[in-house]
Amino acid sequence: MSILESFQTITINEFIGTGILVLVGCGIGALGSLPKSLGFGAAGWMLTAFGWGMAVFVGASVAWESGAHLNPAVTVALALTGNVAWSTVPWYFLGEFTGAIVGGLLVYIVYKKQFDDHDELHTTGSIFYTKPGVRSLGWNAVSEAIATFVLVYWIIQQAPWQPATEGQAPNLGNIGLGYAGVAFAVIAIGAGLGGATGYAINPARDLGPRIAYALLPLHGKEKIDWGYAWVPIVGPIAGAVVAALLYIVNY
How many domains does the chain have? Predict the structure, then answer.
């Protein structure tokens, strides 16, 4: 695959899919948190878990041509298990992280008037990025690693998830429900494991909107906890590596 073909097939599809994932997912936070939103107060934890699962489904469904990773941790695991070439990993990362930033910016555009009419902008950071219930960076990273392990091990059990060839959808292995199966996995993880850290389980999902929030023209917005930002990067990658290594040992 040439550089141009890699960019077109992988980066653009991952950009669009991850952008939609973050737009819909972080949009749920805006829906429930902004007082002038018609859904203010309605987004409880289970709606959050369900909504993020559906966001994964929509984003993955439109990014099928690249294999629909939408998550650098998934990309790393699939590279370790030989399902994608290491030479393509930078193209996946480029699409995933840039898509996540743009998705975060689009959330602001959708809810701009609600942000403009919000008197407590110092509370809006959690719309875009994750925060731990109890701040303890080491344990927070462990929580993220375990939650991501569950997601990634489930995904690579369905391998190979390879980019499409000649316009054909990628081989999804024995996954009977297709991308809906991933959505159910994300819902389950959110419902059971999300309470400790907000279950980023995806470095792009957290860092992208965090950068977007830093760029937003919101006067008095929340000060970003950059000291925590490494946790939803390192934790998910570590969990993905463990999942990949366990898979390699078993198979």
Answer: 1
